[in-house]
Amino acid sequence: MYNEHKDTVEELPVQYTTDEGVLIYPRRLDEQQLNSLGLYSVVMSSKPDSRYYSYVEEGELVDNVYTISYVATELPLAEVQARMLQSVTDSFLAQCTRLPVDTGLGFSVDGGLNDLQLFELGKTQGILTVRDVDDNTHTIVLEDYNTIIDKINAKGEVTMQYKWDKKDEVKALATIDECKEYEHYPYDVLLVDENGDPILDADDNEQYVTYYKNKCTDWEDIK
Q1: What residue ranges do the domains of the chain occupy?
Q2: Are 74 and 52 in contact (CB under 8 A)?
């Protein structure tokens, strides 16, 4: 509720003391009675997305309704891009902590930097068992370490390049609207039944559902 006497927006109190010192219970009153006490319903417009806009809140009492609106101003493009570039970096670091790598030996392993060092140590010490991404144990020969280490290095190079490609894409964005679309990017997914067959509509057309992804933090293309 908007309290006209305090010029503040607050929760409707359980008890309320009028200027005359009378104790009342506002939640038992109707809208007209509340208005007579200087209490009014509040309608708020949607806040602008602070990732792209700064804004000033404005309030106005019209026809016994206190309306809150926002005057938005686009943030400088360079500031938005700087945030997005940091998001790419943070996502890259999180991705590399446990990077799944197909070894080509019939199983996948975690291929982060720490994992790479452990595999190199295992090779040096001649340990002939390794664990996959599901924590299953596999027996290998010593030469298999070369394969695993090469695959991890190759995946790391691909992931690093993917990061730089993302950063180049962000730097090429020319407007705030383009930045918003990049972080809320639409893509369609084919609807299928339990057998993997497309679900058709009444006219025998394939059906799709639209999802959205943040391209700064999405790494599906390299998995």
Answers
A1: 2-74, 77-182
A2: yes
